[in-house]
Design goal:
heterodimer; A: about 120 residues; mainly beta; seven-stranded mixed sheet; four-stranded antiparallel sheet; 11 strands; about 55% strand; B: about 110 residues; six-stranded mixed sheet; five-stranded antiparallel sheet
């Protein structure tokens, strides 16, 4: 199956700092990747759609200046949480679909962000 | 708006059968999928229904009725390792995958 690698798996940062999370498709090219956020015991909330070579599309209510998304290549998308606050602490997960197999999404391992 | 409804929790006994229902209301529909997520882990794909009917994959089966905007996941011969959260998800008209709130499955020995 297709493999999506997400790094780091856990990160603790101080309030006011920025954190970058990487999402890589290891054995396929992903023109589109998706970033989700999940609070404990809740569902995955779509934050934005990352498009290779163009600007990300953000869901309503998601601050694009706070959650910077860059999709510089067909295998890499990054999410940067800027000026992090404790309320940004959450589980962030990326996913990608294989072209031609768009019915199935492959997820990264997720990143547990804790802002102290 | 987009919404997917599924029970928040279900409890069943090891070896039994359990059904998790999902109803959806989305703008556009290109299929219903099911994902499993263990605590602390990422979701993993279980099944997909694009057309009406039953899809079977080993112990897991999934059903879809597009006219009723309804589907379910059926888990047979439950094992303790099946204890997890199960999410139904719809690929909508904008090609996004929208998830339900998830059903936490508790399995008793």
């Amino acid at each position: 199956g297709a493999v999506v690698s997400q790094h780091p798996s856990r990160v603790i940062c101080k309030s006011g700092t920025s954190v970058k999370i990487e999402c890589r498709s290891l054995d396929f090219q992903a023109t589109t990747m998706f970033w989700y956020r999940q609070f404990p015991k809740q569902s995955l909330m779509l934050m934005a759609t990352s498009n290779e070579g163009s600007k990300a599309t953000y869901e309503q209510g998601v601050e694009k200046d706070k959650f910077l998304i860059n999709h510089a290549s067909l295998t890499l998308s990054t999410l940067t949480v800027t000026s992090a606050h404790p309320e940004d602490s959450s589980f962030y997960i990326c996913s990608a679909r294989v072209q031609g197999r768009s019915t199935e999404a492959f997820f990264g391992q997720g990143t547990r962000l804790t802002v102290v | 708006g987009q919404s997917l409804e599924q029970p928040s929790e279900v409890t069943a006994v090891e070896g039994a059968i359990v059904q998790i229902n999902c109803t959806y209301q989305t703008s556009g529909f290109y299929g219903l999928s099911w994902y499993q997520q263990h605590d602390g882990g990422a979701p993993t794909f279980l099944s997909y229904n694009g057309l009406d009917g039953l899809e079977e994959t080993g112990r897991f089966s999934s059903f879809l009725s597009r006219s009723d905007s309804y589907g379910y996941l059926l888990l047979q011969e439950l094992q303790m390792k099946d204890s997890a959260s199960y999410f139904c998800a719809v690929r909508d008209g904008d090609d996004k995958i929208i998830f339900g709130k998830g059903t936490r499955l508790h399995i008793l020995p």
